């Protein structure tokens, strides 16, 4: 056990798999570990390189093992997959992780702090807004069955709930009124919970220096704290374009023979961040169409040459580049300076 230099750790809910090799690459240990025994076993080992796939609970185990003196490297599961030798199982996964972590060209995922993970949980928990949309659509659909409709938007839903609360309105049967009223109570509870999350997000945004720095037009508080929580080390990216590619805002390539063939934007990357960047870009474009672009001539040229959807992707890419530059404090990416004005 003393000669182990590199370990591949395949984590799971309860049964973990360990694959350890020495400096010459010879297998020293292959064994299963129960979750409760992991820390005790690694405490007995000398400091070594530990590879883990970046998946659920990987950041927790990275912090735990680093506290014991080990060097931990997290890797995207898609980058480990090519090293799996036939027969997919925990043992071969651990062996593949052990092999991949020693590759000089492997890309690693920085370990997130507990604060960053807590921020992301709060941010993702706000996705109650999807449930809110589903409840609103259900209320509208059920009442439309009885010919009761209202205008699109928040006020329209409120008018529909007023009809439900009005027992003198005979258009809605009493049994149906009970069901829709329950949906109305659920909608109010969801709105209250979303408002609570929004207040927590704003409070966290005001207390975080990185998030406050990123609060510019197109990158509001929501996206700013999502970036502060998602990007543990901005210097892990060589440039703003690399960061945009990580988010998924660059065209898909299918090039060969020296001929560049670019398609639509890649669906890989962080879908959540990509949706926030795109929404921010659309908000900037919408504001420019209403109030003009005299203060942002670069945006005028952007809108003149491209359709709105293409312009939104191009602007989202530019916003991502600027966000990375501000986080990494890189002086190469200052344009467009008028965006922050």
What's the layout of helices and strands?
Layout: E1 6-10, E2 15-21, E3 27-34, H1 38-44, E4 49-53, H2 58-67, E5 71-75, H3 77-80, H4 90-100, H5 114-125, H6 128-144, H7 154-165, H8 174-207, H9 209-213, H10 221-230, H11 240-247, E6 251-253, E7 262-265, H12 271-291, H13 297-305, H14 308-328
Parallel strand pairs: 1-4, 4-5
Antiparallel strand pairs: 1-2, 2-3, 6-7
Quick structural gist:
The chain has helices spanning 38-44, 58-67, 77-80, 90-100, 114-125, 128-144, 154-165, 174-207, 209-213, 221-230, 240-247, 271-291, 297-305, 308-328; strands at residues 6-10, 15-21, 27-34, 49-53, 71-75, 251-253, 262-265.
Structure description:
- With 341 residues, this protein is of the alpha/beta class.
- The chain folds into three domains: 106 residues, Nucleotidyltransferase, domain 5 (2-Layer Sandwich), CATH 3.30.420.140; 80 residues; 123 residues, no CATH class.
- 53% of the residues lie in helices and 11% in strands.
- The strands form two sheets. It has a five-stranded mixed β-sheet. A two-stranded antiparallel sheet has the order 6-7.
- A hairpin with a 5-residue loop joins strand 2 and strand 3.
- The radius of gyration is 26 Å and the shape is globular.
- The C terminus is likely disordered.
């Amino acid at each position: 056990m003393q000669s182990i230099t590199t370990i591949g750790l395949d984590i799971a809910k309860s049964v973990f798999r360990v694959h350890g090799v020495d400096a010459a690459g010879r297998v020293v240990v292959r064994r299963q570990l129960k979750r409760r025994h992991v820390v005790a076993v690694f405490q007995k080992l000398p400091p070594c390189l530990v590879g883990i796939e970046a998946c659920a609970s990987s950041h927790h185990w990275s912090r735990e093992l680093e506290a014991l003196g080990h060097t931990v490297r997290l890797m995207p599961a898609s980058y480990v997959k090519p090293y799996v030798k036939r027969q997919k199982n925990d043992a071969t996964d651990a062996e593949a992780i052990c092999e991949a972590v020693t590759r000089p060209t492997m890309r690693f995922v920085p370990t997130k702090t507990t604060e960053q993970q807590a921020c992301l949980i709060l941010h993702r928990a706000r996705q109650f807004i999807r449930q809110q949309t589903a409840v609103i659509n259900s209320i509208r659909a059920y009442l439309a069955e009885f010919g009761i409709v209202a205008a699109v938007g928040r006020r329209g839903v409120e008018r529909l709930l007023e009809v439900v609360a009005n027992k003198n309105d005979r258009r809605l049967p009493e049994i149906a009124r009970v069901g829709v009223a329950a949906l109305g109570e659920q909608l109010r509870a969801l709105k209250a919970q979303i408002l609570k999350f929004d207040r927590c997000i704003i409070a966290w945004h005001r207390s975080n220096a990185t998030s406050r720095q990123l609060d510019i037009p197109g990158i509001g508080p929501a996206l700013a704290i999502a970036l502060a929580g998602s990007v543990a080390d901005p210097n892990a990216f060589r440039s703003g374009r690399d960061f945009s590619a990580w988010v998924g805002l660059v065209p898909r390539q299918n090039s060969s023979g020296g001929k560049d063939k670019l398609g639509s934007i890649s669906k890989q990357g962080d879908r959540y961040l990509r949706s926030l960047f795109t929404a921010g870009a659309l908000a900037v474009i919408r504001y420019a169409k209403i109030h003009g672009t005299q203060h942002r001539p670069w945006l005028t040229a952007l809108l003149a040459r491209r359709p709105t959807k293409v312009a939104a992707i191009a602007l989202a890419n530019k916003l991502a580049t600027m966000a990375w530059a501000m986080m990494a404090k890189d002086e190469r990416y200052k344009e467009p300076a008028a965006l922050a004005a």
